[in-house]
Structure formats: structure tokens, C-alpha cells
Amino acid sequence: MSNSSFINLNMLEACRRRNSFRIFYSSSACIYPEYRQEEEANPGLKEADAYPAAPDSEYGWEKLFSERLYAAYARNHGFTVRVARYHNIFGPEGAWNDGKEKAPAAICRKVAMAAADGGEVEIWGDGKQTRSFLYIDECVEGTLRMMRTARFAGPVNIGSDEMVAINDLALMAADIAGKRITLNHVPGPLGVRGRNSDNEMIARELGWRPSEPLRAGLEQTYKWIETQVAVAAQRGEAHAPAAPQGLGKAA
User: Fold this and answer.
1) Of 195, 220, 223, the residue nearest 37 (C-alpha)
2) What is the pLDDT of residues 58-72, one digit of tens each?
3) What is the C-alpha to C-alpha distance for residues 96 and 228, in angstroms, rounded to an integer?
4) Angular region, 217: left φ>0, alpha ψ -120 to 50, beta rest
5) Strand 134-135 with 22-28, pairing
6) Which of 77, 79, 85 is nearest to 31 (CA)?
7) Average pLDDT rounded to a whole number, residues 234-247
8) Is there a contact between 88 and 251 (Cβ–Cβ < 8 Å)?
9) pTM
10) 3-class DSSP state for residue 242?
11) Helix, strand or coil for residue 158?
């Protein structure tokens, strides 16, 4: 929380001093109140749901504070600021084995390492917690549209509204891999029970929605991670402990 706040303050001051007044700020779905995410069947978080504020972590509080910080600089110094709330972005080339990976990467790694028939994949908690995940190519497209608009500043969700339970995400990855797996549920942090993106605002303001289903992005991600696992095995490298599945940023 402290590091991120200082980074944003220093970045804004540097932009002000150098007259760099056109800025994109990547906020997060973690800003949304915990009380809006207590049910697995989450209908989708609307941008207006951010207040009354009650994020479930200091990370979420920092992101919400920074949204206000960028808005203040926009008002006081004439900045052109665009703010988007990212919802669980994933894809190839991301973290996959260092403890910072999100659920799709962690699960793809576990499936890639599991035996082809009856291999075990560890899931933290009951696996019924739900999330939506947005493939990196979709995120880039939504972000570019956000920056190119002249009239809409946000904050706005950039995410998928295709919600999936973590158990089903693991089974999807196994199906992509052509493996039959067993899910082993173990104690671990769960985060909120249900988080999903409502895309009504971005569709209305920018004419954008994700164009591909979750499976399409997961196929590309699994292919890349499977290769990384194979290369690491050849080198005799150990893998870091699995990251928690479904916990917003950490997952």
C-alpha cells in the first residue's frame, strides 16, 4: 500500500513538472466493496458500486485512493486522465511459477505437471469461489479504446463478464490438456466469494466488449505454460508453491 502510493505520487509530480498531461491509470476490481462480493453468483460489479467504499484488502484501498489522486491532478493541473479497473488479466508471458501468478496461470501449471490420467490438482478452499478473467489481448484493445476517446474518462471496468468457478477453471484447463484430473481441496485463502465484471458502461461509452470466450485465452496460456514447465523440467528447476486461486491480484 505504501510503495504503490509513493509511486503514484512521484509519477504524477514528474508528469506535472514535465508537462506530460495525458495519463492512463490502471486501477483494479479489488477496489469494489467486500459486501458486494459475498455471493458466488455475482451478477457483475457496476462502476457505481465502488461507494460506500469497503475493499477487502489494503491493496484495494490503495487503488481506490489512487483513483481519487489522479482525478485531483486532472482537476487541479489540467491533466487528461483515463482510469480503468482491470479484472484479473492473464495470458502468456505472465508470472506462472513465482508465487505471484493469478489463478489461470497457477492452474495451467498444475495441470501441465499432473499425470495424464488421474493426476491430482490442488485447489485452495472449496473451489466454488467465482471470478471472471480477461485475456491480455482483449485488455490491450479495451485500454487503447479508452485512451483514444476524447470524452470519456472513467473509471470503467475492463474485464470479462464470463464468470467461472475455480473448480470449473481447473477442469477446463484439464480438458484443453487432454487430461483427466482429480481436484484436491486444501485449506487456503479464498478472497471474496464472487467477483464479476459488469460491462454495460464500457459497451455504451466505447462500443467494446470482450470478443472471445475464456477458453480461447486459456488455450493460448496453457500452451505457453506447458512449454515453460517442460523447459524447467529439463533444467531440473524447482517450482514455487502454488499461488492462491481466485484472490484478485494475488491469484
Assistant:
1) 195
2) 999 999 999 999 999
3) 9
4) alpha
5) unpaired
6) 85
7) 59
8) yes
9) 0.90
10) coil
11) strand
- How many CB atoms within 10 Å of residue 80? 12
What does the pLDDT read at residue 238? Answer: 60
DSSP label of 92 = T
Question: From the centroid of its chain, how far is CA 250?
Answer: 9
Average pLDDT rounded to a whole number, residues 129-149 = 96
Q: What is the dihedral of CA 214, 218, 221, 226, to 10 degrees?
A: 170
Over residues 70-92, mean pLDDT: 95
Show which residues are catalytic.
59
Q: What one-letter code names the amino acid at 191? A: G
Strand ranges, E, within 7-166: 22-28, 80-86, 89-90, 117-124, 130-132, 134-135, 156-158, 163-165
Cell triple for residue 89? 488479466
Q: What are the b/e assignments for 54-71, b being 16+ CB within 10 Å?
A: ebbbebbbbbbbbbebbb
Q: What are phi and psi of 219, to 5 degrees?
A: -60, -45
Residue 232 is placed in which grid cell?
524447467
H helices present in 44-180, as ranges: 58-77, 103-113, 136-148, 166-177
Residues sharing a CB contact under 8 Å with residue 170, sequence separation 6 or more, in sequence order = 107, 110, 111, 121, 123, 127, 181, 183
Q: Cα-flanking dihedrals φ and ψ of residue 101, to 5°?
A: -70, 150
Express each pLDDT in 87-134 by its tens digit: 999 999 999 998 889 999 999 999 999 998 889 999 999 999 999 999
Q: For the residues of 60-71, what is the DSSP string, one character each? A: HHHHHHHHHHHH
